[in-house]
Amino acid sequence: MNPVNLQPVSNKIVNSRIILWMIGILLLTLVVKNAKSDETPSWVTHHQVEISGFAFIPKQLRVNVGDTIMWTNKDIVPHNIIDSTDQKNISPDLATGKTFTFVVKNSMLYECGLHPSMKGKISIIDSP
């Protein structure tokens, strides 16, 4: 009876496992890198609203879900943004020169919680 040499088969199994392990680590690294990415998707539009003269400029915006809106307070007094429907704060108080960025989830009427006569509107653009 000839002795059986298992060495080549054993090395192939070990090499295959090492290669699969390395591929798994590479894929995991890519997934984690993408999950931590702070990059904004290319389809997102960034909108600007200036707070000046006790008004939101522009007063109305038509946006897509996922777009961002950045309010910048250029007034000499603090302002904030609250949801007009439920009076929940959307932003903290913004001192002169401060900004606040918001990701749009739905249409909304908003106002300044400190100066309720200041009002704005966010409308979602209908999908085709």
Please give the share of residues in helix: 10-25%
SSE pattern: HEEEEEEEE
Q: What is the CATH class name of the domain at 46-124? A: Mainly Beta
Poorly predicted runs are none
Task: Calculate the terminal CA-CA distance, rounded to whole Å.
Answer: 77 Å
Tell me the strand percentage band.
25-35%
Quaternary assembly: single chain
The strand line-up of the biggest sheet is: 2-1-4-6
Question: Do you know the CATH topology of the domain at 46-124?
Answer: Immunoglobulin-like
CATH architecture of the domain at 46-124: Sandwich
Summed up, the helix count is 1
Q: In terms of structural class, how would the helical and strand content be classed?
A: alpha/beta
What is the CATH superfamily label of the domain at 46-124?
Cupredoxins -  blue copper proteins
The 3D shape can be described as elongated
Question: What Rg do the Cα atoms give?
Answer: 27 Å
Query: Main sheet?
Result: 4 strands, mixed
Mean pLDDT: 83
Q: Care to count the β-strands?
A: 8
List the defining traits of the structure above.
alpha/beta, 128 residues, 4-stranded mixed β-sheet, Immunoglobulin-like, single chain, 1 helix
Could you please describe the fold and organization of this structure?
It is built from 1 helix and 8 strands; from the N terminus they run H-E-E-E-E-E-E-E-E. The protein is elongated and about 75 Å long. The mean pLDDT is 83. It has a domain of 79 residues: Sandwich (Immunoglobulin-like), CATH 2.60.40.420.
Would you spell out the secondary-structure blueprint of this structure?
Layout (H helix, E strand, L loop, with lengths): L6 H30 L9 E7 L2 E3 L2 E4 L4 E6 L8 E2 L15 E5 L4 E4 L7 E6 L4
Parallel strand pairs: 1-4, 3-8
Antiparallel strand pairs: 1-2, 4-6, 5-7, 7-8
